[in-house]
Design goal:
globular, six-stranded mixed β-sheet, 157 residues, alpha+beta, Nuclear Transport Factor 2, Chain: A
Length: 157
């Protein structure tokens, strides 16, 4: 066997391995703990004023929405700007997760949170994960000056 067929076979084998590996990444399922780490990384990025860190948790084609269309952002570039871009937002963002839940089979989870910047909001986000990153973010929130403890005082758990 000459060198050319061997090189062609080796190249084909490497290409198939790369295709298989990239397919595994796209279809990779994350665990409950990985979901918690992913959402905490988003919060850490916001809390640190690091838009790149937060947006790195989202797929390139991610959709971020507050229904029906109070806020709609499509794609990482739009999210990067929404998250503060190259400048640290003033006043700084503050995100705290209270409860997180995740269905690993469906790759869909939720988080109950308090977010503060210019105003304070308490809310819930429903998230779809694809390939280990957030592909869809749908949030429902209420503006309130109350602390989380006072906001949930009549039904704490």
């Amino acid at each position: 066997m000459g060198a050319k067929p061997f090189v062609a076979i080796a190249f084909a084998a490497v290409a198939l391995c790369l295709i298989a590996a990239s397919g595994d990444q796209v279809n990779a399922h994350i665990s409950d703990e990985q979901f918690r780490q992913l959402l905490q990384k988003v919060a850490d990025g916001w809390n640190e004023g690091d838009a790149a860190k937060a947006v790195g948790c989202f797929t390139e084609d991610a959709v971020y929405i507050e229904p029906p269309d109070r806020q709609v952002y499509r794609g990482r570039a739009a999210l990067f700007e929404f998250f503060g871009g190259d400048k640290k937002p003033e006043p700084p963002m503050r995100m705290t997760w209270h409860y997180l839940g995740f269905n690993a089979g469906e790759q869909i989870g939720f988080g109950e949170y308090t977010f503060q910047m210019n105003r304070r909001y308490h809310g819930v986000v429903v998230v779809r994960v694809r390939g280990g990153k957030i592909s869809n973010w749908r949030e429902y929130q209420y503006e309130s000056a109350l602390s989380w403890e006072d906001f949930t005082a009549k039904n704490p758990f």
